């Protein structure tokens, strides 16, 4: 039976070739690619990242070649490798396509067996070209063409589809060749600069160019600034001119050259001697400058001077982690990196976005700095080589290092493709709705359909997977080896205890030995709990390290985990709800106040999650909680059990409010109102249960109302505030006043005793010092007794105290009548006397002079210090006393609301009112933050250090920088004090 004739492949349709432009058929005709002889050529064209762009460029190239076009056409038909290289370049880089059209004979560089020249060969070709230029002013064009030719060859080998018997270029080889190319270009630029500045045989200065950054690490991008530092034998006008001319020429011809990493940055000298460099790094350099030196290497110029520079400075690099401010500066660097990218484009930024290249590079460099002094194997520059060395030394798990390397190389591949398209520096993915742009990137990166997704779908899936993997491994990179160092047997080839302690210290843990003990306890728990902890801890520790006090945070996490370990939802929630775990770590690493509450009110941790309408912490209404508290206490006959029930709900509400506050979800005014609401509810519950318990069978002999004073009356309580109150009673019908008062005193004493019972919760102190006659006066008075006293005996301080009187609990009608009575004293017709105003001023002066606690700093005491809460509140109250009889809007117990009324009435200039308001808010935030951080009431801001940073973070200061927070506090209160002095001065 005869064999069938061999079937020649048929010419495919335009659409099947990936050509979508209307001119495609015409362009193919102009090239003569319309017969079945061109099938394989056209299929190669279809594999270009953008077949239309490649076809357009081919037409332009054919026109540029003119009579030489048939030679290229025949070569394309015969040479499959040439087809792949040329079409990949033309479809993947518009800029290199333009270059090839401008220099059409350069196509020969892509034909046949193409190899990359060695570094010395590259340098020789570039320097020779520079030396052969007669006039330095004409050197740019030929050198630029040479540079683009070499870039084109590399891009062609990089982007072309795999050809049989031709090795695939590895990522490390691409970065190394680009760096070699940059070295050659820098050497040529230095040659031109010397010829320009030192003509006619003038001796050339001894100068060495030190490559930094990616070029220094030999992992350069296609398009990148090349970071350099100049070191010279003699720093003078000549060497400075040579360096400047070299940078100018390189920028015009090859790439931007950036010398901002030199000592003192852009403000520093462009050139320095080796001795000057050493002196600077010994005395002034910051941690980031030593981190930058990790990648330093001589790139051009005098090689001996370059080697001496590296030998002199590298020992300082490997001791940088012992610097006193190393941890603080590292944390600041991490924050700066995160803040560099606007939130709106973070998902598209493959360099600086979350899970991007900088995450990998920063983590690797930090581990090198921490362990490099003790392990010379880590003295490598490239990220990939450093990951391999860290893995070999047990500082990073082998699988983690391999996965992170793969993710890093994938992201660098996308970065290279994006930059090649127009030879522009970019790290930004196309917009999510730019399907054509993303499809081009997928094809350029050799993404192939996988059966479920086309190339575009594969790219999107891979981007998501790699970003998540980098984010997860970024935490594991630091902490998984730490867990292994304290874990079960079998990790003996991992990190040593000493290395683990070094690493924890560098990550902000001041007690690394204790931290390892806590890790061992958490990771060694048996069963499911231990397994979940081992999964959770790397990420939790990473989040903790970014808090003001990771040591305290880790201890609190251990205590809470041991306390709540039997609650199945606890670890499951932390594992499955990333927002809950991250917020909990921030709370634990900042506050000593909240963790104790959470151990007794663990259900609040579940409120750290996000609900449909936002954080669940904000879904609770304080007034609803208050009513529930009163009702819960009312269900118990025994007063002690009733108050215990009230404490339970109070504990939950305090934990909720404090958590939302510290996490930046509540304004300070909302915090004060919520804290006041819960105090009012506790007072109401306690009064109700005691009245019921103490009432005789005939019923209570008197009605009782509780009048809130001070911040309680102003609805402005803080975490450390007592409840300032007065008790007022009125006999019921048929009851003698003495009997009623005696019974009311018993009730009031019992309320105070019940609430004052020692407890592990924040205290419930009831302060009655603002009653008539102060602490020497009766605990309870009748309404008529109060009225008689105030009418005849009221002292200026008692009148002032009444300005904040407000009914908070007990009989509503009695409370309202008390306030109407008080109005006659605090807002009398005709106003208070001039003597009263003068006495208030005198007392304020005495308070300023005498009341500040011994040893307190008057500049930073939030209550009694300069421009603090007392200053603002006394100023507001003085204005109320002087003008309350004429301006009804001043009849208000709230400081802030009264300030608004003062401004509206133009009693004080609008700007001064704003200063007072800002100072009150600033001091209140600081005072509340002090309690959150220290766990107990205090009014004195600490000095610079970890605790001040924690106060800044708890007060909502962006970045949590204690120094900046303190500067702002001093500035705001200083301005407020000037207003206070003006008002009290009349």
UniProtKB/TrEMBL annotation:
InterPro entries, per the entry: GlnE, GlnE_rpt_dom, NT_sf, PII_UdlTrfase/GS_AdlTrfase
Pfam families attached to this UniProt entry: GlnD_UR_UTase (PF08335), GlnE (PF03710)
Enzyme nomenclature, EC number: 2.7.7.89, 2.7.7.42
Needed cofactors: Mg(2+)
GO CC terms, sorted: cytosol
SUPFAM superfamilies for this protein: Nucleotidyltransferase, Nucleotidyltransferase substrate binding subunit/domain
Keywords (A to Z) from UniProt: ATP-binding, Magnesium, Multifunctional enzyme, Nucleotide-binding, Nucleotidyltransferase, Transferase
Superkingdom as given in the UniProt entry: Bacteria
Glutamate-ammonia ligase adenylyltransferase repeated domain location: 85-308, 582-819
Region ranges (Adenylyl removase): 1-482
Catalytic activity entry: [glutamine synthetase]-O(4)-(5'-adenylyl)-L-tyrosine + phosphate = [glutamine synthetase]-L-tyrosine + ADP; [glutamine synthetase]-L-tyrosine + ATP = [glutamine synthetase]-O(4)-(5'-adenylyl)-L-tyrosine + diphosphate
Cited function: Involved in the regulation of glutamine synthetase GlnA, a key enzyme in the process to assimilate ammonia. When cellular nitrogen levels are high, the C-terminal adenylyl transferase (AT) inactivates GlnA by covalent transfer of an adenylyl group from ATP to specific tyrosine residue of GlnA, thus reducing its activity. Conversely, when nitrogen levels are low, the N-terminal adenylyl removase (AR) activates GlnA by removing the adenylyl group by phosphorolysis, increasing its activity.
Family: Belongs to the GlnE family.
Protein name as it appears in the record: Bifunctional glutamine synthetase adenylyltransferase/adenylyl-removing enzyme
């Amino acid at each position: 039976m005869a064999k069938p004739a061999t079937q020649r492949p048929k010419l495919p349709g335009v659409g099947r070739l990936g050509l979508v432009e209307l001119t495609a058929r015409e362009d193919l005709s102009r090239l003569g690619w319309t017969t079945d002889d061109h099938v394989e050529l056209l299929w190669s064209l279809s594999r270009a990242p953008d077949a239309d762009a490649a076809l357009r460029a081919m037409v332009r190239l054919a026109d540029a070649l003119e009579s030489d076009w048939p030679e290229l056409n025949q070569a394309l038909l015969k040479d499959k490798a040439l087809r792949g290289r040329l079409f990949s370049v033309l479809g993947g880089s518009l800029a290199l396509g333009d270059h090839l059209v401008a220099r059409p004979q350069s196509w020969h560089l892509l034909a046949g067996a193409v190899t990359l020249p060695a570094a010395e060969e590259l340098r020789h070709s570039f320097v020779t070209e520079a030396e052969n230029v007669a006039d330095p002013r004409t050197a740019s064009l030929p050198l630029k063409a040479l540079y683009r030719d070499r870039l084109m060859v590399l891009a062609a080998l990089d982007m072309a589809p795999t050809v049989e018997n031709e090795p695939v270029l590895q990522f490390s080889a691409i970065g190394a060749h680009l760096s070699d190319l940059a070295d050659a270009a820098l050497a040529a630029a230095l040659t031109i600069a010397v010829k320009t500045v030192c003509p006619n045989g003038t001796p050339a200065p001894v100068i060495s160019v030190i490559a930094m950054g990616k070029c220094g690490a030999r992992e350069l991008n296609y398009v990148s600034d090349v970071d350099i530092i100049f070191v010279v034998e003699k720093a003078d006008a000549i060497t400075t001119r040579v360096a400047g001319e070299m940078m100018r020429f390189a920028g015009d011809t090859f790439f931007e050259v950036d010398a901002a990493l030199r000592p003192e940055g852009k403000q520093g000298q462009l050139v320095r001697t080796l001795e000057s460099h050493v002196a600077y790094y010994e005395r002034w350099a910051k941690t980031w400058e030593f981190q930058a030196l990790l990648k330093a290497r001589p790139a051009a110029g005098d090689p001996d001077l370059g080697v001496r520079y590296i030998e002199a400075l590298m020992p300082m690099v490997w001791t940088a982690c012992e610097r006193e401010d190393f941890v603080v500066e590292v944390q600041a660097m991490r924050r700066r990196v995160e803040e560099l990218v606007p939130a709106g484009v973070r998902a598209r930024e493959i360099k600086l976005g979350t899970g991007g290249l900088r995450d990998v590079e920063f983590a690797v460099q930090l581990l090198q700095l921490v362990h490099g002094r003790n392990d010379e194997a880590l003295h490598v520059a490239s990220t990939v080589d450093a990951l391999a060395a860290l893995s070999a030394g047990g500082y990073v798990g082998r699988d983690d290092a391999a996965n992170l390397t793969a993710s890093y190389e994938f992201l660098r591949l996308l970065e290279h493709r994006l930059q090649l398209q127009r030879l522009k520096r970019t790290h930004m993915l196309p917009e999510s709705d730019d399907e054509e742009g993303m499809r081009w990137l997928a094809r350029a990166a050799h993404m192939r359909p996988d059966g479920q997704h086309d190339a575009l779908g594969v790219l999107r899936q891979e981007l998501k997977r790699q970003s998540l993997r980098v984010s997860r491994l970024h935490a594991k990179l630091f902490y998984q080896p730490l867990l292994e160092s304290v874990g079960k047997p079998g990790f003996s080839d991992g990190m040593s205890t000493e290395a683990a302690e070094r690493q924890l210290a560098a990550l902000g843990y001041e007690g690394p030995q204790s931290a390892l003990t806590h890790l061992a306890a958490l990771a060694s728990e048996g069963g499911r709990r231990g397994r979940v902890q081992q999964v959770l801890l790397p990420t939790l520790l990473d989040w903790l390290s970014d808090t003001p006090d990771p040591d305290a945070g880790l201890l609190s996490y251990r205590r809470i985990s041991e306390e709540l370990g039997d609650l199945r939802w606890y670890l499951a929630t932390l594992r499955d709800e990333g927002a809950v775990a991250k917020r909990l770590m921030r709370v634990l690493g900042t506050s000593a106040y909240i963790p104790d509450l959470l151990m007794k009110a663990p259900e609040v941790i579940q409120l750290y999650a996000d609900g449909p309408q936002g954080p669940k912490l904000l879904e609770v209404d304080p007034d609803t909680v208050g009513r529930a508290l009163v009702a819960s206490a009312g269900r118990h006959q025994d007063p002690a059990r009733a108050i215990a029930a009230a404490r339970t709900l109070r504990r939950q509400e305090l934990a909720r409010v404090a958590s939302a506050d510290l996490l930046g979800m509540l304004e300070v005014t909302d915090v004060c109102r919520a804290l006041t609401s819960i105090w009012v509810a506790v007072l109401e519950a306690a009064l109700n249960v005691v009245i019921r318990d103490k009432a005789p069978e005939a019923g209570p002999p008197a009605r009782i109302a509780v009048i809130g004073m001070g911040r309680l009356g102003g609805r402005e309580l803080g975490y450390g505030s007592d409840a300032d109150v007065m008790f007022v009673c009125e006999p019921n019908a048929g009851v003698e006043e003495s009997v009623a008062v005696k019974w009311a005193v018993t009730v009031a004493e019992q309320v105070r005793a019940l609430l004052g019972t020692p407890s592990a919760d924040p205290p419930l102190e009831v302060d009655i010092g603002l009653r008539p006659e102060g602490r020497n006066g009766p605990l309870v008075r009748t309404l008529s007794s109060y009225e008689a006293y105030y009418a005849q005996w009221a002292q200026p301080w008692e009148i002032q105290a009444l300005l904040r009187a407000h009914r908070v609990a007990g009989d509503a009608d009695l409370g309202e009548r008390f306030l109407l009575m008080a109005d006659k004293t605090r807002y009398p017709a005709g106003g208070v006397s001039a003597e009263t105003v003068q006495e208030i001023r005198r007392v304020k002066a005495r308070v300023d002079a005498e009341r500040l606690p011994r040893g307190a700093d008057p500049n930073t005491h939030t209550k009694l210090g300069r421009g603090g809460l007392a200053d603002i509140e006394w100023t507001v109250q003085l204005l109320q006393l002087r003008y309350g009889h004429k301006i009804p809007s001043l009849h208000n117990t709230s400081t802030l609301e009264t300030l608004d009324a003062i401004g509206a009435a133009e009693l004080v200039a609008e700007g001064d009112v704003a200063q007072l308001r800002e100072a009150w808010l600033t001091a209140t935030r600081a005072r509340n933050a002090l309690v959150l951080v220290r766990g107990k009431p205090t009014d004195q801001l600490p000095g610079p250090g970890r605790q001040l940073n924690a106060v800044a973070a708890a007060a909502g200061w962006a970045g949590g920088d204690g120094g900046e927070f303190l500067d702002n506090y001093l500035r705001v209160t200083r301005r407020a004090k000037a207003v206070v002095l003006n008002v009290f001065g009349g």
